[in-house]
Design brief:
The chain contains 15 helices and 10 strands. By secondary structure, it is an alpha/beta fold. Bound molecules: zinc ion (ZN).
Length: 344
């Protein structure tokens, strides 16, 4: 077997559902912040998220991504600078988007969020069949559809999603509190657990079980946007950024993960433009196929904000596999690995 050429031994993948590239690269939108229909307490949120200076403004919203990932890694999808990221699937909503991220190809059959068990074998399922990764891949997701998206029954992957409790960890006290809390929280988005619970459960699992691949799928940004609640959408993105910071700080202080772990962050679809378009996405909503991704890790040059090229969400599966020295080959037309991520 050929010597592995990459330094990455572990991957943490994080998705932030329907979070737009517009806010990632530009920070909060002032016309939205001052729109009383989208933000009730404009004074409070203008203070929290507005600065006339673009780079300060986006760092107020996402301090970890702009302070650490952009400084030591790469951020893709700033269309104003000439870097484009899009989904390949024609639907521009969640299940087709997650299928594309996790299998590396856009499947036209998957045309509904209620599609049921995924017929496709994704990169995690294929890796879970190898000795090096068997039982070392875990997913914690806010949205309960992830049991189907990763076809938990067939794949044998650990998928904790929706309001499922976590069982079998030694750090019982914290896990029991999390299990109790999620049971008592309102199901405001119908089948979606709040992201802070998903994060803390996944983080406890990481600390105790040392998975080689951890996938955390956050949801709140999408549901708050559908509800037209811009301040909550911003808060959820800001919180997700803080979860990323906590993960990365832990990774870089833990000898089993330090300088051997790549963190990849992306989303399943974009959203429309303007105060109404922003609430929606899907093939009827212009430009909601526009996405972004960010990456930091030992194989990735510190290029910062990428200013050219066209990339697609169908490239992440092969990129993650390549980082781990795994050749992901299927009968399906999988998007190619992103060379720039791997070129250190
Ligand atoms: Zn949505």
């Amino acid at each position: 077997m050929a010597q592995k050429e990459t330094k990455t031994e572990n991957i943490i993948l994080v998705t932030i559902d329907g979070f737009r590239w517009q806010e990632l690269f530009n920070g909060a939108d002032s016309s939205f912040l001052h729109n009383k229909k989208l933000v009730e307490n404009t004074g409070k949120y203008t203070k929290r998220y507005w600065n006339d200076n673009l780079s300060e403004r986006r760092e107020m919203l996402l301090p970890f991504i702009w302070g650490t990932v952009a400084a030591q890694g790469q951020v893709y999808g700033n269309r104003a600078k000439g870097c484009f990221v899009n989904v390949k699937n024609p639907f521009w909503f969640s299940y087709p988007g997650y299928n594309e991220i996790l299998t590396g190809f856009a499947d036209k059959r998957i045309n509904s969020n209620e599609f049921g068990p995924n017929p496709n074998t994704g990169v995690f399922e294929m890796m879970n069949e190898s000795d090096a990764f068997k039982g070392r891949i875990a997913t914690f997701a806010s949205w309960d559809a992830f049991n189907d998206i990763l076809n938990e029954k067939r794949s044998g992957l650990l998928v904790n999603s929706g309001f499922e409790n976590v069982e079998g960890l030694d750090s019982d006290n914290k896990i029991n509190v999390l299990n109790d809390i999620q049971t008592g929280l309102p199901d405001i988005f119908d089948g979606v657990r709040l992201d802070a619970v998903t994060f803390n459960m996944g983080f406890e699992y990481l600390k105790e079980k040392s998975p080689r691949i951890l996938y955390l799928a956050f949801d709140e940004t999408d549901d708050f946007a559908h509800g037209g609640r811009y301040n909550d959408y911003l808060n959820s993105a800001h919180n997700a950024d803080d979860f990323l910071k906590k993960l990365w700080n832990w990774v870089q202080q833990n000898p089993a993960y330090k300088d051997k772990t790549t963190l990849m962050i992306t989303c399943d679809h974009g959203r429309g433009e303007g105060p109404d378009g922003w609430k929606s996405h899907g093939s009827e909503t212009a430009h909601s196929d526009q996405t972004w991704f960010a990456v930091i890790g030992p194989d990735t040059p510190a290029t910062g904000e990428i200013s050219s090229g066209q990339y697609y969400n169908n490239q992440y599966a092969k990129t993650m596999a390549a980082l781990l020295g795994f050749d992901y080959i299927t009968q399906n037309p999988v998007g190619p690995a992103i060379d720039l991520v791997l070129r250190k």
